[in-house]
Design goal:
A hairpin with a 5-residue loop joins strand 4 (88-92) and strand 5 (98-101). It contains five helices and six strands, in the order H-H-E-H-H-E-E-E-E-E-H. Helix content is 33%, strand content 14%. The chain is globular and about 55 Å long. It is an alpha+beta fold. Helix 3 (35-45) packs across helix 4. The protein has helices at 4-11, 17-26, 35-45, 51-63, 133-138; strands at 33-34, 68-70, 78-80, 88-92, 98-101, 127-130. The strands form two sheets. It has a three-stranded antiparallel sheet with strand order 1-3-2.
């Protein structure tokens, strides 16, 4: 579970009503909302919050390293509050749902020294792709491997 609000308080982040609502909307496990989804949920809690405030707050949270921006080809960016717990992502190719996953082992082991080209590798991002149960059931003929 994310502890975004707690982390922001420890940092002394100025917690306006608008910022608090954005952080509350993002906080939780397996929360990977788009900016528009954050806006919609924030508006339910605080109707006067603006699109610009939501987008600016998301940008600031990413800059602070408190939220991870998750990009997927052809889809809107999603925002992950689990920035301080090592994990990878599982993305549905159908609906774009993103889930945190915690594979066993060190992903750095998978990149041999000969494939590092002199780089000092500081991090690894692995994205697993597939179909969630809903998309898989809706279109089984499109599932990978069903040619």
């Amino acid at each position: 579970m994310s502890n975004l609000l707690e982390r922001l308080r420890r940092r002394g982040w100025r917690m306006t009503a608008q910022r608090r609502v954005v952080a509350e909307v993002l906080d939780g496990e397996h929360i990977h909302l788009t900016a528009d989804e954050v806006l919609a949920r924030a508006t339910e809690r605080l109707p006067e919050i603006s699109r610009a405030t939501v987008y600016n707050t998301l940008g600031e949270l990413v800059s602070l390293g408190e939220v991870i921006e998750v990009s997927s080809v052809g889809r809107a960016k999603r925002y992950d509050p689990n920035a301080h717990r090592a994990h990878q992502h599982l993305v549905c190719a159908g609906c774009g749902t993103v889930r945190d996953v915690h594979p066993e082992g060190d992903p750095m082991v998978g990149l041999p020294e000969t494939e590092r080209f002199g780089f000092t590798v500081t991090g690894v991002e692995i994205t697993y792709r597939g179909l969630c149960p809903v998309c898989g059931a809706a279109a089984p003929e499109e599932a990978p491997g069903n040619d």
